[in-house]
Specification:
Chains A, B: InterPro entries: Aminotrans_V_dom, Pser_aminoTfrase, PyrdxlP-dep_Trfase, PyrdxlP-dep_Trfase_major, PyrdxlP-dep_Trfase_small. 2 copies of one chain form a homodimer. Chain A has 9 helices and 14 strands. By secondary structure, chain A is of the alpha/beta class. In chain A, the strands form 4 sheets. A 7-stranded mixed β-sheet of chain A has the order 2-10-9-8-5-3-4, sandwiched between helices. Chain A has a 3-stranded antiparallel β-sheet with strand order 11-12-14, covered by helices on one side. A two-stranded parallel sheet of chain A has the order 1-13. The longest helix of chain A is centred in the last third of the chain and has 21 residues. The radius of gyration of chain A is 21 Å and the shape is globular. The two termini of chain A are 29 Å apart. Chains A and B meet through helix 1, helix 3 and helix 6 of A and helix 1, helix 3 and helix 6 of B.
Chain lengths: 363, 363
């Protein structure tokens, strides 16, 4: 820990790389010798163009995607994407197909329902979202316009460990909580989106990575700001973009490159997750993981203790050790440690050590 | 000028108070002893709640509004409001009425047109948007759901000097470029909105100040994120808000209070504007203002020189004096000096002095 900083296990807004914050701090009054803050420069200036385009290029490079994909910066969070997706793609009587694997995938489906175009193609709701539905549990409707999945479920602590096969139906994924956390064959997705406030930057930017051919013709009877091609045609500069947020996302992407890219991130993230899952699995039931083992998230580790009293004690004592933000979401209860890219190994080690000590003191 | 800063006349994103930027810089790694950046704290935490609610309260206090008004923080800029307004209010066959006084008011109207509910109630297009239509030039349709105006036209440099009388029809105003720049009887408006990146903060937050009774019942067949009551019911925390931007808006609002509130801002802004309009009016036609005198903006001063060559020379020489961002928008040409709240008197004085010197050297 440095500069009076705590270990921040918040689910989002979440920890950012200290290096990135320090860089932003040092140039906050005068960006790149412009004599202005990056918050004050014109979004039509060459200085901003460089920030914007470098962020896009680095993200595509990290994901190993080529010219057939486009990076967009949108506002309104994943919740706005939930509405844009059916409006843009569930056309001509076709239906949006959804796998329900947690809270946000269910909200995405409900938003399609408002438009009368939602179909449930798979669900783990009956299992209290402890697992990700398997390939053979996903049944697409005959009129499927797309299949929508949420790749990592922040609240329940589950994550896909495979990419669903859709036999040609476009695959759309909400990766808000595991974007750029590991390599994947991203070319199997038609559209990937993420509210950046978990793994990539401050709240207020939605990163969308999309196959160009998928958004060539957005419907013209929907609001301009809800058409994907409004963003692709104007390099996400149709109106003033959330420039400071995009600047921060660019810095985080450059930081990931410096760490060795997505493969290096994946290895580091797997090591970090193993520390906590081992602490759970070796606790003789003192800690009970929420997620089924084959669906465990590398980003959000959820677990419960014997009772709520003990859980409250755990949260309070952890906080005294500067281990913050580990109280779980009310719909699962217990604990949730969010260990995104920016969380250092030492932070997770400190939590794992604390878990061992707390168990011994409270058996 | 301090700390290698220039005088920034950009139209938006635009200059922010140096004091505010310095404060943000000093606490960027550790907000309020939380051990986290304000970008990293949870939007459900008491620390963030205080930031959020203080910003709302200060804005209402500055505007002299009571409990019958609500402050909302939305994303997507004014362009998203253009679509939300007809979706939320032009219902039951009623029509959105629009006064066209420039580029953005026209875009707002066009967005209503996409929904088939737009009516032009007045326009100064034939006069190349040199003036604001007068009260008797505004004709509401019999089925008017609301009257929409753009109070200050950033591109053309015009501003309303009166509040249109609508005889009970709800009045809606885009105040993106003059929000909190002067007192006004804000209670005559049903809804006021502003992309904050001109007068109030970094891009990525839309400030909406609205009469509670006007948004009680948003239609349930439109996307959740486009219903005004989604924001009012959840204190603008239905999903993760653009927290850093709201934090900056809060700091700017507190700074305005410290300057003496809207009356003090209005006086300062009038003095600043007079410097430039006097320089134009006393130039014997060397500088030609775009706006008609009775419609001149206190925020954006637009003027032309004899030819484009001379204009290019003006921009280049001004830049050498650290007077930046004064090239006009392509649809008007010439110069535009944006002199928002945060622009100090000395900056405008430096520009006025330069205008005099440049005229003498280039007569």
């Amino acid at each position: 820990m440095k500069a009076n900083r705590v270990y921040n296990f918040n689910p989002g807004p979440a920890i950012l790389p200290l290096e990135v914050l320090k860089e932003a701090q040092s140039e906050l009054l005068n960006f790149n010798n412009s004599g202005m803050s990056v918050m004050e420069i014109s979004h039509r200036s060459p200085e901003y163009d460089e920030v914007h385009n470098k962020a896009k290029a680095d993200i595509k490079e990290l994901m190993g995607l080529g010219d057939d994909y486009e990076v967009l910066f949108i506002q309104g969070g994943a919740s706005t994407e939930f509405a844009m997706i059916p409006m843009n793609f569930a056309l001509d009587g076709k239906k949006g197909n959804y796998v329900l694997s947690g809270s946000f995938s269910t909200k995405a489906y409900q938003e399609a329902e408002i438009q009368g175009v939602g179909v449930v193609a798979g669900s783990s709701k009956e299992n209290n979202f402890r697992n990700i539905p398997k390939q053979d549990e996903i049944k697409l409707s005959a009129d499927a316009a797309y299949l929508h999945i949420c790749y990592n479920n922040t609240i329940y602590g589950t994550e896909y460990h495979y990419i669903p096969e859709t036999h040609g139906v476009p695959l759309i994924a909400d990766m808000s909580s595991d974007m750029l956390s590991r390599p994947l064959d991203f070319s199997r997705f038609s559209l990937i989106y993420a509210g950046v406030q978990k793994n990539l930057g401050p709240a207020g930017v939605t990163l969308v990575v999309v196959k160009k051919s998928f958004i060539e013709n957005s419907p013209e009877n929907i609001p301009t700001m809800l058409r994907y091609n409004t963003y692709s045609k104007k390099n996400s500069l149709y109106n003033t973009p959330p420039a400071f947020g995009i600047y921060m996302v660019g810095k985080v992407a450059a930081w990931i490159k410096k760490q060795g890219g997505l493969q290096a991130m994946a290895e580091k993230n797997a090591q970090k997750a193993a520390l906590l899952y081992d602490a759970i699995d070796n606790s003789n039931g003192f800690y009970k993981g929420h997620a089924d083992k084959d669906s465990r998230s590398f980003m959000n580790v959820t677990f419960r203790l014997a009772n709520e009293e003990l859980e409250a004690k755990f949260v309070a004592e952890a906080k005294k050790q500067q281990l913050c933000g580990i109280k779980g979401h009310r719909s699962v209860g217990g604990m949730r440690a969010s260990i995104y890219n920016a969380m250092p190994y030492e932070g997770v080690k400190a939590l794992a050590d604390f878990m061992l000590k707390f168990k011994e003191e409270n058996l």
